Amino acid sequence: MLKIENLHVKLEDENREILKGLSLSVKPGEVHAIMGPNGSGKSTLSYVLAGRDGYEVTEGEAMFNGEDLLAMDPNTRAAKGVFLAFQYPIEIPGVATMQFLKVALNAQRKARGEKELSIPEFMRFVKDRAAKLNISQDMLKRPVNVGFSGGEKKRAEVLQMAVLEPSLCILDETDSGLDIDALKVVADGVNALRSPVRAMIVITHYQRLLDYIVPDFVHVLSAGKIVKSGGKELAHELEKNGYADYAEKVA
Amino acid sequence: MADQDTIDLVKTIEVDKYKYGFETDIESDYAPKGLNEDIVRFISAKKGEPAWMLEWRLEAYRAWTHMEEPTWAKVHYPKIDFQDLYYYAAPKSMAAPKSLDEIDPKLLETYAKLGIPLKEQEILAGVRKQGEKSTLDDDGNEVTAGRVAIDAVFDSVSVVTTFKAELAKAGVIFCSISEALREHPILVKQYLGSVVPAGDNYYAALNAGVFSDGSFVYVPPGVRCPMELSTYFRMNAKNTGQFERTLIIADKGSYVSYLEGCTAPTREESQLHAAVVELIALDDAEIKYSTVQNWYPGDAEGKGGVYNFVTKRGDCRGARSKISWTQVETGSAITWKYPSCILRGESSRGEFYSIAISNGRQQVDSGTKMIHLGKNSSSRIVSKGIAAGRSDNTYRGLVSAHRKALNARNFTQCDSLLIGDQCGAHTVPYIEAKTSTAIFEHEATTSKISDDQMFYCMSRGLSQEEAVALFVNGFVRDVLQQLPMEFMAETQKLIGISLEGSVG
């Protein structure tokens, strides 16, 4: 599904390379965890995959279902099935969450040449998914992320994911700022979306999240490269020994 | 998106996507070109007006010839040659007033194309979908549109007014002003020019001299008008000025909600539109007046488009009366418009909610005047200006309290949103309080769509234009909510269309 090959990325404004030859292959149905210390390039990877401005790819490629992902606009990537759950979701004043979901879903359906959902169909669809994430009607009426608590923001991100039904979900530090109860709700929401046709890349600093979203593969990202890959037990190892071993290897 | 991208995209702007720009090929009766007393007499005679009306018009016309065109607004345009215009144009088939069944099919077709159903039986049968439309409001609730009575004005004449019989049952008079002059001369004489006098300003005087049609509404005491009233103005004939006059009277304890919509064909030449609207609310009466103005804005280089010089004023004449203006301004090359309230009655209330969107080369100078004369009168102004392309968008407002207006209260909020870096937004508020008991508040903000917000929307599948439209809809939400339900969804779409090619 996703094949990243020797990806080199630098910041457009500063002449600093963040990703230095990252390779990763993700197949449908798989859940990959990417762990690493601060500044290792975790967020850069998620932004580059989603298409944020400000990054320059100097070498390598990322193919998504055989197409050059990096050549696409962010909205095209979204329509093709890429979704990024933001670490810090952005506020959009005045736009109700329900309205936002509707516009986003219809924009994607339109781009794929599908019919727009009728209002009643859409309402049922959203309410059903919102209930599973403990999201109230009231919250759906509030403007996107405005005044949401940390937990609400993350649940709203997962709701968007559930509504847009992407084939590749990238979760950027979805656990940050969550207490244990909120973490469980979010993880349940994510787990409900696991399917043989959907892949996930879970980016996290801590092993804690991976107790709830159990990955098939764990990769250690350090200084812009994947330095070690393994099964879920690798996460536990990291929890015990920290990232120090890997930081040294690169240095 | 990076600034350079924005600049490049704005440069390639295409605002020629005006979808109401078609022209109806219909034979019209014109008055001779140019303006003089004979033209004023011609129009008055065409309308079969009483002698006092002709005198009133002539007086206005004479006053106009001595007046100077105002230049204080922040708008620039070539001098208008008032002798190079037609002041009266009417479809030939409209020589005599007709019933709905006899209307020229070409006219019906024009309105159908604009999405305005005129055939009551079809509206009732739901053929034209009115009353069936279902959409999402801002809060994500489902909304179904209700029924609306429409007065359709085509160039200089009113084509038809729907639901008249049903309204008459409630005692509401809703007809063209020409008809009102014939059928209800006493009412018209009593109120016409009582809010906007014939010689009020340059364009109002011109209008008083040559206005050809418009709507008249009278709601009797204690009556809540059973449906929304609406006038739809269509400018079609070439080189013709449109001068309509609307007069709405809400008698004691009554309520009426009124909506005005406007479109015009795409033309290379500019078209002049100078309307006057007068509202009168007596004791405990309420008038809600909404406008969705979508005149042709001109092309990307500023060629063509409607020059919109409009005087709108409401008089809260009675105690506890209320007048609320809501305007959505998306069209016109030049907008010069200040819907105002004279808060004469004790504890009267004035409201002004405005969304003014400018794109391409459009110039908007719009705002309001809240003139507090009565004790405990209050007013609220919420203005949302959105400037894109190379447009200029100015809010100009006056809030004043007379020395007798004890405890006058005003709250003003002026927000501007800039899209791209070649447009301008300006706020020019005037505040005058002659009583120390007045409390006036003014808040203003200017903002842009951030790169983060744009990326967030796009990562959810929205194109840049869709994201801008969504963001703008959020920005104008407070005002949008003031619009009658029926028009909220339409307006949201219109905002999207107006901003096509603006990309931030």
Describe the structure.
The complex is a heterodimer of chains A (251) and B (504). Chain A has one domain: 3-Layer(aba) Sandwich (Rossmann fold). Chain A is 39% helix and 25% strand. In chain A, the strands form 2 sheets. In chain A, strands 6-7-8-3-9-10 form a 6-stranded mixed β-sheet, with helices on both faces. In chain A, strands 2-1-4-5 form a 4-stranded antiparallel β-sheet. Chain A is globular, with a radius of gyration of 18 Å. In chain B, helix 3 packs antiparallel against helix 9. Chain B starts with a helix and ends in a 6-residue tail after the last helix. Helix content of chain B is 23%, strand content 34%. In chain B, strands 7, 8, 10, 12, 13, 15, 17, 18, 20, 22 and 24 form an 11-stranded mixed β-sheet that branches. In chain B, a hairpin with a 2-residue loop joins strand 5 and strand 6. Chain B has one domain. At the A-B interface, helix 2, helix 3 and helix 4 of A face strand 3, helix 10 and helix 11 of B.
